[in-house]
Each structure stands twice: as structure tokens, then as C-alpha cells.
Amino acid sequence: MKKKSFARIIAVVSVFAALLLVLTGCGNSKKSSSESNNPSSVQQIKKNGTIRVAVFGDLPPYGWVNKDGKRVGYDVTLAHQVAKDLGVKVKFVQVNANNRVDALNSNKVDLVLANFTVTPERKQVIDFAKPYMKVSVGVVSPKNKAITKASQLQGKNVIVTKGTTAENYFTSKQPNVKLLKFDSKTQQFNALKNGRGVALADDNSYLYAWSKDNPSYTVGIKSIGPKSYIAPAVKKGNKSLLNWTNKEIDKLTKQSFFVKDYNTQLKPYFGKEVKPSDIVLPVK
Amino acid sequence: MDHSGISVLFEGTNFERLLGGLWVTVKIAAVALIVGLILGIVLGVLRTFKNRPLRVILRLYLEFFRIVPTVVLLFLFYYILPREMNFNLPGDQLATLVFALWVAAEMSDIVRGALISVPQHQRESGKAIGLNRYQLYRYVLIPQAISLEIPATINLATRVIKTTSLLMLISVMDVINIGQQIIEANNHTHPTGVFWVYGLIFLFYFLIDYPLSWWAKRLEKKRLERANG
């Protein structure tokens, strides 16, 4: 009896292994053929009459749903403009931060406009078009003891959230700054309010929005460390849509579309201290 | 900021949108259950046959859907299969398909278990009066198995309804996904909105699932009363 069940286990395992081989094998053979019939090329999108765009549904003010059930935000406005310039309708597919790459690679969407930060790791699996926004680490501090220079932080306690670019930057580039690390956004802001550190570092756009709701604090250092860029993304190798999107971003930048987009979508969240040039890229 | 987060639920079309999301949830669960139960009964009957290759295949099917977590199944069908082979379905249809296959797998085991737990003398008596295989199942085994399998089936149904909360991973606009949208849209102005939105979703799930589990309990009790006279 024992022997029999052991044999059965081997049979089950081998069947699964065979299945896996078949699946991966198919994958390799398909890859070469998929370049010829690209379902997300500009031609194909125009033929279908719709462009499928991945956006966030829960990240105000970039991509979210307002109380009337309408999709709005900085990215969503851009998506509408892109569709208008292509002469097609737009179909939104809501994604999370961690399925943006999969959505592209499995042909669920043609274009990702979901606050997608350009990183070297992501560049290996998808193609980014030209960026339309910049973000970097900012530092927020109480207005009456405002921190405006990195030198003011030396030897002081700075509050960060674990795993953020802010933590990364201070750990590697500013070793003289003492870090107080927290697990969540709520914790870190409470710590700042309780005076546990002289300042708090996080993504600047996030801090702009927070300091607007907490007027006794100010984003004294708007940008510190390396800048990151937010760009549209297409499936790796989709040259047709990539080139078109690059031209589109250039054209929209020249028309100062992004400044207008900033003024309607982001400004109400960020408050007066922030200028469009803190977020929007200049015309080259 | 001092007004309570409950107002989030009734702002604009928020409440209707949550109900719309609930409808998506219920629709996917209901269609998947109907299709899955029918398919599962057929597979369950087939699994009691003596044909060995058939049993091995169906057993593999069951183990695959039972062992692989539903999250992985959804990812596999939604992201990986379309990439490897040209198989592309919208999220909600795909979710219905995956859930139906899963229900069928679980159901086949419930049905098989119920069929073989019908006392042996019933089967033998049926054969003795000259019933063929179809008649044996139709008039003797299945009617007696049904009362045995109903509680487990209802239990499966409540599990399916709860598991639809994973659908937000594959971009289906179910009640959880809509709830998330509403929470994030109001987080700056109503930080306590999250409790109300999730509270309402909890209530929705409870209202759907509790009657089912109450029904299962009642049927079970009835069955025991009947069995013990």
C-alpha cells in the first residue's frame, strides 16, 4: 500500500512537471511570432477604435474615482488627451502598483499611465516613453523651526518610513543624519507632530499634499537627492506606440498641457507653496 | 475634519457604486456556483466509476484546483496564460471561469464522498432488482447522496462568495475594489471613512453569507432528525 501511494505521488509530480515544461516551451516559441502581430500598435489601436489604458483607481490626485463615480486625476486627464489625439475612445483598466508590469506583458492594456516611476529594473521588462513628471525626496518640518538646507539636518533625528526612497537616500548618502524609522505613513506623521524628530523625509509630492492639510508644517526642502521620473510605459518592443507616445509627450509639453493638468488636478491638493515647475518637466 | 466618516458612504453616488460592486460580486459567484455545481456533480459521479485512467485524470484535476491557492489560479489565468498562449478574456468572465472550475473540483469530491457513503446494501439491492448503472444512480444513489452533500455544498458556496474579494487583483470592479476607491478618495478629508466603508462591506458579506450558513445548519439538523427517527 505504501509503495503504491509513493508511485502515485511520483506520477502526480511528473505530470505537473510535464505541464510546466509545455507551458514554458510554448512561451519561448510564441515570443518570436508576437513581434509581427503586435496587438498594441498604433495602427491596431486605431483600427479597434479604443486604447486600453492602465490607471490607478485609488491614488488621488493622480488616478482616482470621485464621488460621482468618474475617473479623474493627473494621469487620467493625460489618458483622455492621448486618446483624443489618437482619435480613439479610451478604456480604463484599474491596476495596483504591483500588477502594472503584468498588465502590459499579458496584453491586458496598451499603455500604462499609473504614476509609474522609471527604474533600471523596470526598464528591463517594459519600455518607458519620455517622462511627464518628476518626483524626488522632500523634507517637511514645522514652520516655526523650518529646515531649508540639508546641513541643518546633520546629527539630528529625521523621521522616515521603512522601504521608501527617502530612507534609502539618507542611509546611503547622508550618514550623519540620524534616522527614526516607522512602518506606516500614519505613524511617521504622528511622530513628527509629537516632536520626535526635527523633520520628516518622504516623496515630495506626498508631503505637499500632507502639508496642505497641516498648515503649521512646510516642505522646507522640496527636492534632495536624485530625481525620479514618471513616464508612460508600453510593452517591451512595442516600437510603434512608444515612438508615437514620445512625440505626443513632446507636443503636450510644448503646449504646456502638463501645466494646465497640474493646475486642474494637482494644485487643489498641493497648496500654494508648490509651483507647477516643482512637478512638471520643462520644455527642452 | 471633525464630522464623522459615515458621511463618506452617502456622498455623491458612493452608496450606489458600492451596491453596483456588490452586484458584480454576487453575479460572478452565482454564475460560477451554478456552472460549477452542475459540472461538479457530473465529475463526482464519474469519479465513482471503476475506470482507472478516468479516475486518475479527475483526481489530478481536483488536486490541482485544491492545492493551488485561488490567488495563484487567478494570476495564472489572467496574466500568465494570455502571455504564453493566445487566450484572452475580460477579467469578470475569466474570474467566473476560474471560480466555476474551482467549484467543480471541490464539488466533485463532495459528490464522490456522498455517493460512496450511501450504504453498500443499497447499491447491492439496486443491482439485485436488475437496475442498470444509469437507473442505479438516478433512483438509488443520487437521491440518497443529495441530502448528505447539501450542507457541504452550502459551505462551499459561502467560501466562494468570500473568496471573490480576491478579484480586485485582476482588475475586476467588485465591492472591495470600489470600497478601496472610495476610501482613498476621501482619506485626506475623512480619515475614519475606512472603518465605515469596510464596515458596510462586512455587513454586505454577512447578509449574503449568513442566511446560507443558517440554511445549511437547518438542513443538517433535519437530516439528523430523519436519520435517527
How would you characterize this protein structure?
The complex is a heterodimer of chains A (284) and B (229). Chain A starts with a helix and ends in a 14-residue tail after the last helix. Chain A folds into two domains: 42-132 and 231-275, Periplasmic binding protein-like II (D-Maltodextrin-Binding Protein, domain 2); 136-227, Periplasmic binding protein-like II (D-Maltodextrin-Binding Protein, domain 2, 3-Layer(aba) Sandwich), CATH 3.40.190.10. The model of chain A is unreliable at 25-35 (pLDDT under 50). The radius of gyration of chain A is 23 Å and the shape is globular. Chain A has helices spanning 2-34, 42-48, 74-86, 100-105, 120-123, 165-173, 185-193, 204-213, 239-254, 257-270; strands at 50-55, 58-59, 63-65, 71-72, 89-94, 111-112, 126-128, 133-142, 157-161, 178-182, 199-203, 217-230, 233-235. By secondary structure, chain A is of the alpha/beta class. Chain B contains nine helices and no strands. The radius of gyration of chain B is 22 Å and the shape is flat. The model of chain B has no long low-confidence stretch (mean pLDDT 89). The interface between A and B is medium-sized, with 33 and 34 residues. Chain B: The chain crosses the membrane at residues 20-46, 58-81, 93-115, 195-216.
